[in-house]
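Working notes for the structural subgroup meeting. M.R. asked for a predicted model of this chain before we commit to crystallization trials. I am recording the input and output together here so anyone reviewing the notebook later can reproduce the run.

Input as submitted:
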Amino acid sequence: MEERVLVAGASGALGLEVMKLLHEQNFPLRGLVFSKDGADKVAEYTDDIWEADASKGNLEIKGITKDVSMVISALGKSVSLFTNRGNSFLENDFYANSNILDDALKNGVKRFVYVSIKGVEEAPEYEITKAHKMFEDALKASGIDHTIIRPVGFFSGLHDLAIMAKRKAIPIVGDGSARTNSIHQKDLANVVVQNLKEGPEILEVGGPLIHTRLEMAEMIEKKIGGKIVKVPEKVAEWGMFLPELVNEDVSAKLKYFKYITTHDMIGEKHGSLTFEEYLENLDLKDLP
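Returned structure, recorded in token form:
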């Protein structure tokens, strides 16, 4: 049988890079996307495209893994404050992936690579990490051969700060001393593909350089402008209760944003692309 690969979340920042790499390596590909716009993005790499909301139930994606030997899931809800598809983190990160896993088990898929998020063990109380942890546990219990990749965060996920910089403010919670080594989505895609056929059960992944949150904010300030605004942690805590009155989605994202920006988020170093290089090539016209 051909080693056909299903890429779930194929039209996202990471999913597209994974599709591109696998296409270059001549893998037969199937892509799962959410919308017609997503289908248009991945059409360059495959004409085997499923457009569906996998969180809605098994019938929505019945047979999606038929004739598939490996699954890569980069499927999940965006953590951006400027993006909201409507579904909850539980729906997009747990139910959607669980439905794909159920189909994979029925169709004899050999291997499942899941892109999770760092913090699922250190901070399981947040809605975002809880949903990822629930699926990690389901994947481990399923018995399928798998690798779970936990990035500390990737550069496109920092677009919120760039968007805010365009609007003249770059918020930093606390003193900005927490460190991270976020990774470029291209470098992360390389890690995913390298672990496609075999790999460790869990891999926590970061980029080549470690920076403080303040240093990253200063790079954004230099590239885009705006002013760095330090928000005391206590003020941030109170401010995060207000959005719950109108929007639980924003509240969940703000709480997690406060956590990751005030704690060290460091993974095993991979890749070569730096945050400074990423900013240099960022087209500000692409930001709202």
